[in-house]
Amino acid sequence: MNYIPTIGSLLGVIFPAVLSLVQFDSSWQFFVVVLVLGSAQFSIGNILEPRLMGSSLNLSGLTIMLALAIWGGIWGITGMILSVPITVVIMIICAQFPGSRPIAVLLSGKGAV
Fold this sequence. Notes:
mainly alpha; 5 helices; elongated
C-alpha cells in the first residue's frame, strides 16, 4: 500500500487499528497497533521504498517525489499511480535525442543514462 506514500500508509494503519478496537477490550492495544504499524509504514514508505525504487529505476528520490506531486496534481490518484512509469518513459525518450539528453541526465539518479 506504499505505492502512494501518504494514502497507502494511512490505509495500511487505519484498517488494522479499527480491527484492534473491535477485537480487544481495552484501548491500549489500539495505541500499540497504531504506534507499531505507523512507525513501520512511515519508515518503509518514506525512507526505504523511494531509495530502492530510485536505485532500481535510475531515478533520483527527488524526481520520484516531484513526479508524484506533479502527476497527482494533473490526474489525481490515477496520476499518482502512473507517475513513476510516466517519468521513466520521459527519461528514456529524452535520453534518445541529443538536445534533450541533459533533461534525462537531470532526471536520472546516477547522472548516467
